[in-house]
Amino acid sequence: MPRPFTRLAEPFAFVRQFTPSWFAVTMGTGVLALVMASLPWGGAPERRLAEGLWLFNGMLFLGFALLFGARLALFRDTLKPMLLHPVQSMFLGAVPMGLATFINGLLLFGVPHWGARAVALAEALWWGDVALALGVALLVPYLMFTHQSHALEKLTAVWLLPIVAPEVAAASAGGLAPHLAPEAARQVLVIGYLLWGLSLSLAFSLITLVLLRLTLHKLPGSEFAATSWLPVGPLATGCLGLLSLGRAMPEAFAGTTLEGVAGVARDLGLMAGLLLWGAAAWWLAMALLCTRRHLGQAMRFNLGWWGFTFPLGVFTLATFELAHRTGLGFFALAGAVLALGLALIWLQVMVRTLAGLWHGELFRAPCLEAVTCPSGR
């Protein structure tokens, strides 16, 4: 049996090789905790398990943030290769999205324990998350336009990661607003809608390109198998965002000149959410078919497999919200099937991640392969 970390014998090599793709672990784990807490039939045991998973995810995010910060502080020469890498740079979007799952859990699990202090922390973290999401959504596309090398035949849905981050923050705004004073809630909701529009408009453009690329150049290699699930993410998050933002609008704008608009936003949010859910369902069905084809090939595990979890998790949350808003049993049944599938996928991906962590196989930054440094091997 190989010794653990045999590939990381030199001091701090694991810090130098730490990549932002690790934050995808916090995205998948965080969304599973939220799904478990949203189970319509769930009781106290399920909620305690969900809360424990959320706490575990918070520790993961903190640990990853410290490792990423240490890499940038100790190995500044690794920043430029990461930013210019056509794939690794995309995973910078996973940082604010992983943080958003912690914020949502803080409102769900932390408020009953810590009350106003949890709300204040969630609000502060949300503004930080907005800044991170906007920064990534501007920086990475700018680098794509000016420095990185891309081609249509190499395009994958991983391009969606940096631009979906603002949309995830927008969905979190709908959960945060009901805990705030009306004036603060209105500000958060308006910014949430702006983030939603910014993100989803770009996501539709990229999804169109993904569809064109798949038609002209067929499926990418099996190492990118999970990318076929990524278009589900912005569509499902768009659905969930409209539902959560619209639900919070009437209370926040009660007694203002926009009170009537708030009611319309709630109702239109439901209608548009249904449309986006349908679009996400098509992409999910297609992702399942593509994954089935990839299974016939040699699919070697990598951190990209966490892409199987977050899109499915957000789609599940949107499905449960539609079940609550419409009262239709179809959505409740679909949500149950999706939640079970998410749990099974998360278990398999987490087991493989832990195995790769034990053997040190996952501490390898592709953007540094061409960089010569004594401590980088």
Automatic annotation (TrEMBL):
For this UniProt entry, the molecular function terms from Gene Ontology, in alphabetical order, are: sulfite transmembrane transporter activity
Q: How does it sit in the membrane?
A: Multi-pass membrane protein
User: By its UniProt entry, which Pfam families does this protein fall under?
Assistant: SLAC1 (PF03595)
The compartments listed are: Cell membrane
Sorted alphabetically, the keyword list is:
Cell membrane, Membrane, Transmembrane, Transmembrane helix, Transport
The cross-references to InterPro entries, in alphabetical order and at most eight, read: SLAC1/Mae1/Ssu1/TehA (IPR004695), Sulfite_efflux_TDT (IPR051629), Voltage-dep_anion_channel_sf (IPR038665)
Q: Locate the transmembrane regions by residue number.
A: 21-41, 53-75, 87-112, 124-145, 157-177, 189-212, 224-248, 268-291, 303-322, 328-347
Main subcellular location of this protein, as a coarse class: membrane
Q: Name one GO cellular component term.
A: plasma membrane
The family note in this entry says:
Belongs to the tellurite-resistance/dicarboxylate transporter (TDT) family.
Official protein name in the record? C4-dicarboxylate transporter
